């Protein structure tokens, strides 16, 4: 590394406070969880070493396998549903339309509410006998949304979308505003319409933001927990028991901290793997910039 | 109110997944608390409205005792988790609230609890002043580990008098009558029975009662004791068949798994006349009184679970939460103070204050004070049921150790909604650890 490339860049010492906190509150607990995953412990007394027992059981456990698939499904559905909506909303909100500020403020509200409150709210709205479904039977039938697999998954995806789209919209709004105006001016001169401008200028320029937003969605999707806890409690049966909820169940309902730790680690592994693949596929690791001269 | 014992499992615990790592990290940590702890006993209880009475008790006790009692309350949703984490450490309470049965078994197994037969020998009233069916729930491996406190909560069959009248049916006394009633109500466009299937434990109530009526309490006792054949017995299959028939007859409608008791969904069905019955713990009364006072005044009826013709169980048997219990830590430094505090559990003052806030204690002298109850008629009805019950089945999820609850809930829900059949239910129940 030449000396010129380090000019004006902070030295390693700047990272020490953050590194210490990260080590203390992320790495140390993670190591403890690794150790716990090889023990049998119900929270009383000391953990007993159990070798690979937890791992053995987990890999044969149909609920565990299913929970991983479900975590991935919720993630994919979340990305597929939220990305187009938030790109369109974000790009729109970056413009200068009339009433734009007022409308933007309104749809940012869900982001300000706690996910717990949001889940409780939707649970009430979707009550089959007293909520919206009872008034719109042509659409909802008997309203048994949370009692069947497809319905329950649909509700989970919908509620997460309702809550988190504003966050991603915010990201895209900022990114869309950073797109150099000259590009649009040039395109206009060449006779490109709004739609062409969107696909040929805006979207490519949003590339890095899309990756950022999708990584956030993936991490959020894989660790979805609150909505499951409040809306479905993993049911019907085990149909919405995703890995994060299964970990909670094992740990705090069954007091089987060994198994819960193993699930937690498995989730860490899967999440790491998924983000690595994403970073590779999108070329995010190359740190390429779309801005000129950087 | 111990209806919160139910809420415990369903109440919101934000960020608990994250808390997992944090609480694990905190386990090795300090237990430094200020002040002289040597001359104190700590009493850990579930935090709710009943704490009012417990605070009074502690104050009364402290007036005369040299060893002072300290009441620690943990908000309901965190109680079980907190207890589990402190019980083996330096902050372990001397006395703590629990549900008896399987809920204390892990602590007994770990050698943390004091068998109470020694205390009872010195003070026989600690046993003889309580209703036997209730006292016995906290007996583990033949030894008593809990003294009843707070109130009993049998599960009852509630109904909407107006709906039954409009449909021209009377309260069904037998299972067959129930099936006929269901058909009639359905033809009138009413959901015959409200069920908060989303909470899962209300669904379990149907299983534990019907099993008791069909096979008697022995089947579950055997099964919980580790005899896996009990679940595959003809009686077990018969009970499952009867449940299937009831569900298939449309008794609960089709969307019960989207309905919850804890958010007021199923009680509202009953109160608004959209449903005719609900099988629920005795806390249903106060729940409805809060949310639908007019309905309670005019149209709320209650009774027992229907009898099953030819069934082995006594029709007077009950199921539900027998009571809550105080258990004593083996390592307590002040066994005498603990014994003195436990004596309060059969005192007249205790019984009166519990009745005053709507709880129904299970001491043998409770009957003398029923007139002081929040609703004397309802309390008396319950008390007579409990006093005369030959057997009182503790809710399955509490009779088994905590580790079993999730499996039970899933099995129960899947069988009810048709995701699994009798064989799958039996296999799931056979996989449970012995209580």
UniProtKB/TrEMBL annotation, chain A:
A family per Pfam: BPD_transp_1
Membrane topology label: Multi-pass membrane protein
The keyword Protein transport is assigned to this record: no
Domain ABC transmembrane type-1: 68-278
UniProt subcellular location: Cell membrane
GO cellular component: plasma membrane
Transmembrane spans: 12-38, 68-93, 105-125, 145-164, 210-231, 257-279
Family: Belongs to the binding-protein-dependent transport system permease family.
Protein's UniProt name: Binding-protein-dependent transport protein
Lineage, top ranks: Bacteria, Bacillati, Actinomycetota, Actinomycetes, Kitasatosporales
UniProtKB/TrEMBL annotation, chain B:
This protein's record includes keyword Lipoprotein: yes
Signal sequence coordinates: 1-25
Keywords, comma-separated and alphabetical: Lipoprotein, Signal
Pfam families: SBP_bac_1
InterPro entries associated with the record: Bact_solute-bd_prot1, SBP
Transmembrane segments: none
Name recorded for this polypeptide: Sugar-binding lipoprotein
Natural source organism: Streptomyces laurentii
């Amino acid at each position: 590394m030449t000396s010129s490339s380090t000019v004006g860049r902070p030295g390693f010492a700047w990272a020490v406070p953050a590194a210490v906190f990260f080590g203390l509150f992320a790495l140390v607990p993670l190591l403890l969880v690794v150790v716990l995953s090889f023990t049998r412990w119900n929270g009383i007394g000391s953990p007993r070493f159990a070798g690979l027992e937890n791992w053995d059981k987990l890999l044969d456990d149909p609920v565990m396998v299913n929970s991983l698939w479900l975590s991935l499904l919720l993630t994919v559905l979340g990305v597929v549903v939220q990305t187009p909506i938030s790109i369109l909303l974000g790009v729109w909100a970056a413009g200068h339309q009339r009433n734009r500020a007022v409308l933007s403020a309104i749809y940012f509200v869900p982001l300000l509410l706690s996910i717990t409150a949001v889940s409780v709210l939707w649970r009430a709205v979707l009550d089959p006998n007293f909520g919206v479904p009872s008034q719109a039977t042509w659409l909802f039938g008997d309203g048994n949304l949370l009692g069947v697999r497809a319905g329950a998954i649909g509700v989970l995806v919908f509620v997460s979308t309702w809550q988190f789209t504003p966050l991603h919209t915010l990201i895209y709004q900022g990114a869309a505003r950073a797109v150099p105006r000259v590009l649009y001016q040039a395109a206009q001169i060449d006779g490109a319409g709004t739609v062409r401008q969107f696909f040929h200028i805006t979207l490519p320029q949003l590339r890095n933001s899309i990756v950022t937003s999708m990584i956030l969605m993936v991490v959020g999707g894989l660790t979805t927990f609150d909505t499951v806890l409040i809306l479905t409690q993993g049911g019907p049966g085990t149909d919405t028991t995703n890995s994060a909820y299964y970990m909670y169940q094992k740990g705090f309902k069954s007091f089987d901290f060994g198994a819960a730790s193993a699930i937690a680690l498995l989730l860490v592994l899967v999440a790491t793997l998924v983000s690595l693949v994403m970073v590779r596929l999108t070329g995010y690791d190359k740190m390429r910039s779309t801005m000129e001269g950087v | 109110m111990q209806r919160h014992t139910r809420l415990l499992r369903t109440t919101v615990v934000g960020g608990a997944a994250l808390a997992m790592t944090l609480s694990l990290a905190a386990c090795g940590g300090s237990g430094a608390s200020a002040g002289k702890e040597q001359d104190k006993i700590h009493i850990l209880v579930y935090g709710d409205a009943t704490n009012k009475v417990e605070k009074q008790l502690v104050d009364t006790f402290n007036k005369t005792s040299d060893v002072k009692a300290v009441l620690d309350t943990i908000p309901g949703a965190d109680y079980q988790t907190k207890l589990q984490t402190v019980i083996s450490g330096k902050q372990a309470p001397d006395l703590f609230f629990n549900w008896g049965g399987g809920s204390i078994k892990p602590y007994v197994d770990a050698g943390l609890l004091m068998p109470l037969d020694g205390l009872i020998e010195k003070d026989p009233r600690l046993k003889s002043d309580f209703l036997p069916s209730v006292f016995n729930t906290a007996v583990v491996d033949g030894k008593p580990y809990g003294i009843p406190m707070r109130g009993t909560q049998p599960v009852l069959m509630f109904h909407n008098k107006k709906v039954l009248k409009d449909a021209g049916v009377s309260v069904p006394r037998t299972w067959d009558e129930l099936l006929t009633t269901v058909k009639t109500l359905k033809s009138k466009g009413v959901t015959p029975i409200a069920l908060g299937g989303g909470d899962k434990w209300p669904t379990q109530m149907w299983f534990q009662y019907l099993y008791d009526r069909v096979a008697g309490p022995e089947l579950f006792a055997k099964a919980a004791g580790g005899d896996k054949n009990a679940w595959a017995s003809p009686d077990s299959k018969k009970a499952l068949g009867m449940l299937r028939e009831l569900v298939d007859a449309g008794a609960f409608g089709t969307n019960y798994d989207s309905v919850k008791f804890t958010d007021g969904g199923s009680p509202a069905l009953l109160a608004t006349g959209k449903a005719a019955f609900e099988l629920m713990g005795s806390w249903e009364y106060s729940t409805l009184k809060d949310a639908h006072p007019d309905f309670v005044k005019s149209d709320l009826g209650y009774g027992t679970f229907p009898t099953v013709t030819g069934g082995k169980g006594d029709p007077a048997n009950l199921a539900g939460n027998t009571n809550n219990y105080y258990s004593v830590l083996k390592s307590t430094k002040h066994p005498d103070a603990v014994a003195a505090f436990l004596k309060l559990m059969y005192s007249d003052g205790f019984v009166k204050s519990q009745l005053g806030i709507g709880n129904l204690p299970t001491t043998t002298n409770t009957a003398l004070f029923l007139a002081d109850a929040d609703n004397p008629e309802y309390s008396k009805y319950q008390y007579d049921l409990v006093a005369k019950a030959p057997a009182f089945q503790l809710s399955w999820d509490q009779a088994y150790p905590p580790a079993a609850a999730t499996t039970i809930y899933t099995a129960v829900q899947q069988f009810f909604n048709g995701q699994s059949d009798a064989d799958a239910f039996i296999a799931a129940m056979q996989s449970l650890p012995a209580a």
